[in-house]
Amino acid sequence: MNDEALIRIAEALERISPKPFAAPDFTKADAFVWHVSPDLLDPVSEVNRVDIGLLVGIDRSRDILLKNTLQFARGLPANNVLLWGARGMGKSSLVKAAHAEVNRQIGGLKMVEVQREDLPSIGKLLNILRERDERFLLFCDDLSFGHDDSHYKSLKAVLDGGIEGRPENVVFYATSNRRHLMPRDMIENERSTAINPSEAVEEKVSLSDRFGLWLGFHPCDQDQYLAMIRGYCDAYGIEISDHDLRAEAIEWQQTRGNRSGRVAWQYVVDLAGRRGVTL
User: Fold this and answer.
1) How far apart are alpha carbons 87 and 68 in whole angstroms?
2) Residue 82 backbone phi and psi in degrees, to 5
3) If you placed Cys at 267, which of 150, 156, 246, 252 could pair as Cys (CB 3.0 to 4.6 Å)?
4) 58 falls in which pLDDT band (50, 70, 90)?
């Protein structure tokens, strides 16, 4: 067998069995995205987020989450957090804003975003992070599980850590529209068809119980909605009278059939574009 054939065989073996995942240079960024196939922690140079001071109407959740995150960043005990509730009310924005605020105050906290479909690979990520000196906030946005979805079992590796326990330098934050992370009809169906209804869904429903903190987000009222918009306008220098803002914002919300922080921001984007203001 000649050298050329040996080289081709070696290259084929490398493709079949890729090199073990190695930790990146964590000094390059404060935020990373976890990818699989191949395993990779991709640094994010600029996180898409808003200042924590611009998040209106969620003061209690903001204070609790910020306190928990500061405790964790300082090496103190902290809980995993589930932020659940109404869509568009700032759940993911609050996580990213709290991360930025903690780094502004004391620094050193890294955030790693993990997609729900990549949860089965989370054990490999935890093994790498466990050996590091940095502290890591793992973040999964829009977490939920459907029928015949077994990904929730992988999440237990983050929340409980199995026999090794969750790494002391890792905490997990997730957002979801569902308090129990699974459809209500799925819970009711399993209860109605099971020999022991209380045990049939215990494993899945108890998943949310493994989060030490539950923070609920509820639809905002009109005053909060208008306050969100006024806060954005003042922050970005968009000049508009209270009368015009109220009339336009209410009309915008009526065309959307919904009132939330997301709808407020979408109106501000439209207003800024019309006024020639860069956000």
Assistant:
1) 23
2) -110, 115
3) 252
4) very high
Residue that the structure tokens 């984007």 belong to: 269
Alpha-carbon distance of 89 to 97, in angstroms, equals: 14
Q: What angle do CA 209, 181, 156 make, to 5 degrees?
A: 55
Cα separation of 213 and 63, whole Å?
13
Radius of gyration over every alpha carbon of the chain, rounded to an integer in angstroms? 22
Question: Which pLDDT value is given to residue 195?
Answer: 46
On the question of pLDDT at 200 being above 80, the answer is: no
262-275: pLDDT as tens digits: 999 999 999 999 99
Cα–Cα dist 197/189, whole Å: 10
Max mean pLDDT range (105-119, 135-149, 162-176): 105-119
User: Furthest-apart CA pair in the chain: how many Å?
Assistant: 84
CA angle at 85 for the pair 88 and 142, rounded to the nearest 5°: 70
Looking at per-residue pLDDT, the higher value among 76 and 39 belongs to: 76
Rounded to 5 degrees, φ, ψ at 17 are -120, 90
Query: Which residue type sits at 161?
Result: G
User: Distance between alpha carbon 68 and the CA centroid of its chain, in Å?
Assistant: 15
